[in-house]
Amino acid sequence: MSSARVIPIAVPAAPTFSPAAPDREAVDKRGRRIRDLRISVIDRCNFRCVYCMPKTVFGREYPFLPRADLLSFEEITRIARLFVDQGVEKIRITGGEPLLRKHIETLIEQLARLPVELTLTTNGSLLPQKAQALKDAGLHRITVSLDGFDDAVFRRMNDVDFPVADVLAGIDAAAAVGLAPVKINCVVKRGTNDDQILPLARHFRGSGHILRFIEYMDVGSSNGWKMDEVLPSSDVISRIHAEFPLEAIDPNYPGEVAERWRYVDGGGEIGVISSVTQAFCSSCTRTRLSTEGKLYTCLFADQGHDLRALLRQGVGDEQIAAAIAGIWRGREDRYSEIRTAATAAARKIEMSYIGG
Length: 356
Ligand code: SF4
Prior knowledge:
TIM Barrel
């Protein structure tokens, strides 16, 4: 049960603009538009990754959200449609572990009817069983988390003894059904798995998949984050460059989170995501919808806006759209630009609840 504070949304008056041309120009206080909607469909996971869902906090007694609290697929799709009307071009399905949500392919089918790029982030554990159904339902791309290539290191990172081989089998299953190239995300924690950078690079070089290294972040309030456990992305790049020369390449689009690099010898592309050492808040176009319908305008937020209440009060689309636009216009988030030891220690929503 998330301890994040809730901001009840006053039901806005019926907006003056015509529904045919919703306010696609909602711009926040820093001139940023909404382009990316991340939807967390479940707060549970079958892994206990130490930087996200440590067992010490997320044990057997942890009060996960009761089923009735979760948004239904119809509610999720309705909200997603209203965001698309406001300019969202990309939807990412997250969790917890989204493939644990029963019949997730039904939601994918519904969302795939919207004019967006539809992606999903998973720990890969259920991909061998689910890949074909996700592809058939209309999923465009998939991202798989893999925090090590050495089995012992990876099992320590996921803390449920899950083997590397099974995640690799999941990646192969996704590629086999046409969800390639797969993006592979590795969170690098100095002193814990930074020795996995080169083994992972060696394995995925030439595979066509895109390996990305993510700086360890002070997400949530449970992972005991310390700055000296952050390995800057510049170190990651220089370690790989020493063995396989790299060159920087342009972003695919403005506001892309990952900084792109490619192997000079044509061995493919890698990326780094540097929220701690190279903040990218100035171009952040992301917003997040939690499993039970709260809207968060930053990954490091401590409070959300309750959209579910509007849905379940029978409020109309125009008013919900106006509420969303109003929330976005009031947005000033730039957490990574102002991070301090004090902010790092402050209470924040859990990443396992809001999705990365
Ligand atoms: S810290 Fe918040 S505002 Fe900055 S990039 Fe991340 S989500 Fe966006």
